Amino acid sequence: MKIPAKICIKNLRLRTYIGIKDEEINNRQDVIINAQIYCQAGAAVESNIIEKALNYRTICKAIIALVEDQRFALLERMTYEILEIVMSHPGVLKAEVEVDKVGALRYSDSVSMALGGKREEGQRDWTAGF
Description:
Strand content: 35-45%
Oligomer: single chain
Radius of gyration: 16 Å
């Protein structure tokens, strides 16, 4: 049975090194990550077995490890590497990742970058795009 599903990771708050100025290179900054992950949930719905579901906890742990352990010059690069983690799971058909850099501009809450990826069902390779 095909049951399209959307998993949302909302407001994952992490600290990382992001930027090109000395202050940004030397001090961790707050980022907020949101991801929308599209997959088929039919097998999980029918069986109620965890192994048949897309494991969003594994995805989230990998994102945390990447962001907290790496340094990034550009928001674009961080967002793409997070998208790569999400899309590395073959059950993901489509995803959108948005990363907010908190306090990046004066008078604004944040600046964000969003990137998307998609693949045809049953395919391994994916392409960037919404």
